[in-house]
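## Example record

The block below lists the input lines for one assembly entry, exactly as stored, with component labels intact.
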Amino acid sequence: MLALNVWLLAVGTAFLFALRGWRSWGEAARLAGLAYMLGVASTGVVLVWALVVGIPFSVATILGAGLLVAVLALIAAYRLGRRPPPRTRLRLPRLSLFAAVSAALVAVYLEALFRSGRLAALTEFDGWFFWVPKAKAIFYFGDLDNQFFRELPHHGYPPLVPTVEAAAFRFMGSADVVTLHLQFWFLFVGFVAALVGLLAPRVSPLFLWPPLLLVLVTPRVTGYALQAQADFLLEELIAVAALVIGLWLFERRDWQLVAAGVLLAAAMLAKREGSLFGACVLLAAIGATWRQARTAWPRLAIVGVGAAAATAPWWILLHVRHLSAEGPEAGGTGLFSHADLAWPSLRLTVSTLFDYRQWLVVVPVALLAIALAFLAGARRLPGYAALLYVFGAAALTYTTWAFPSIPITKDPINPIIRLTGWLVLVMPAVVPLVLRDAWQAIDAKDET
Amino acid sequence: MPDDPPRLPALAADRRRNTSFRRLTRLGLACCVAVTSAFAIGYFPRAVSHLDDTASTNNALSLADRDVGGGNSVVVHQNAPYEARRLIPTSARYRVVTGGRLRNASPLTGSFVDGWFRSFLIPRRTSAAARWIICYGCDVSLLGAPYTVRWQDDNGISIGDLR
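Predicted structure tokens for the full assembly:
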């Protein structure tokens, strides 16, 4: 499994090198988390395509899919004139005491998380009921087996997570559902490293580490981050995409949009809600750039269309096999015939987002930071973050409202607690930038 | 310009108000970071302790407990899935048949035992006409053919094949 994740890191490193290049090897090391997430996303998407067209799933396929991404990336890098940074002695970054202590706490946490997952049994219901059986089917039969994918519950769910799990099984040599939890540990570490690597040079450690630590210690993250199902990977991909797009709002580097597109494509192939949450991220960016609509909106639209197009092979396969896509029970105009569910669904969303026993004070802190940033005179980043939360809450309300057969409750039968995680994992990605903008806005006013 | 002199103190007052407002906003931001840090530090020992406890609990589980996982609340006894794996060839088809003669069943057994075995026994496939039977309190006389029991326990669970 370690070899698989090193491979995904290598693929993502080649991909990121093509996207932006590096000024130094230290910078490359700092962005290793983002590279890993891009490696997971790009290799995962290619593997899903390979499964859809019937290429047998094996170690060779996993290596080949990664190699394809890496070779294409390196060709692009060569064409774009990217050069490896000069060989210099790798210098450790200079950390403030606060940053060093915070990083040490995160390392201690991740080590404890590793131990908690190393011998974990597969007890999560959705995990043993259909996510892991799908992965086992890919592992044993080498394809999206017609019988299993038809008979298992939720055949319409996109298969990126079972594909990643099956890749882990392949590299483990058996369908070891206990060790499988460590694959989710690698994904979680990649997520944390991506946030830190992207934000560290841009924001003060005081704005970066406390939100990250707060999210890590929430009961929900502590208890469920390594579950062998799709929710956390989906939310990690969306959160990193939201961060990269947030950076694009004021840096306007094209590579950031390409990276976001790949991450969103993987998110959309991870779970049906990926399309919904991905749309929220893009709509928030569209709302935050309404003054630059002519230049920004077409680019954001291309990201959305590109990411959605990457999921097309999966939907075509469902159509060819005469399987339903398992859309919302009351989607579209059906919502109007269940209008009575709108308010209870919204109330459930809000009460879950503010549920102290699940998420502590993550969402109140995020909203407070956004409000203070507006008061300080910052606009674009707080506007983006505010729209993320507004659209996100609306999307979460929709997930309950559009499924009238699901009781409006926080009990596990309704996935609302799991789904709200995306607005929680987005917090340490976006709020540090909001705080930085707010502080800078006050500084700018002080100087005038 | 007769109005100018009175405006100067007003501008100065505005500036003071703005400065105070900015100070307050800065204080608010600092409080926001402080509250976040306080919760993060305050809950850190609890989170790590929880993770330690989870690791200890998982470490104390038997191999079978870990392997069966969620099935522990479904299958009544761990012997049944392991006997099924031992007896049913990997290329064979099987079906799970439930009935009212099961003892010590959990509330989840009837609804989920079929789905759990489907996951546990992959690559064995299920089939409505399968020769191999995993009988969970079923009425064997309704299976449609003579049933040879290969393994059974006291809870009314048996595994066998139809001739």
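DSSP finds 23 helices and no strands in chain A. Residues 97-118 of chain A form the longest helix (22 residues).
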